[in-house]
Design brief:
mainly alpha, 6 helices
């Protein structure tokens, strides 16, 4: 079995891959729904990296708010607690199944910015 640090590193690397994809898509002509999806996936993987790093159970969920609540004990910073992740959380499903969801570049940029904030808080929670 892998050590918790190895699992955390794997989650971080996968999150960074999703974030890079989201940034690349946002910097071009889209498709911006894909950028939103990858931003959500990045944030999810970063939160799961933090849980892995601290040896916590990692739930099978795409719900960023649920993951955020589990991570608060490791990131007690009020800024983390106040991150509004509900919209970003919704991108895990809405971009795949809502045929009327076509975000603009501004929406996808905001999704990427939120994923970047999550990454910074998670790294701080891991002592990096």
């Amino acid at each position: 079995m892998k050590h918790k640090e190895d699992l955390a590193k794997g989650w971080l690397l996968k999150g960074d891959s999703d974030l890079a994809n989201a940034k690349l898509t946002v910097s071009g002509a889209g498709p911006y729904d894909t950028a939103c999806f990858h931003a959500q996936q990045a944030a999810e993987k970063y939160l799961k990296a933090l849980l892995a790093f601290h040896g916590s159970e990692i739930p099978r969920t795409h719900d960023l708010e649920e993951l955020q609540l589990l991570c608060i004990e490791f990131i007690p910073h009020v800024g983390f607690r106040n991150l509004a992740l509900e919209e970003l959380s919704d991108y895990a499903v809405s971009v795949r199944y809502d045929f009327e969801f076509w975000p603009d570049v501004k929406t996808s940029e905001e999704a990427v910015e939120m994923a970047e904030k999550v990454r910074l808080f998670v790294l701080a929670g891991m002592g990096a």
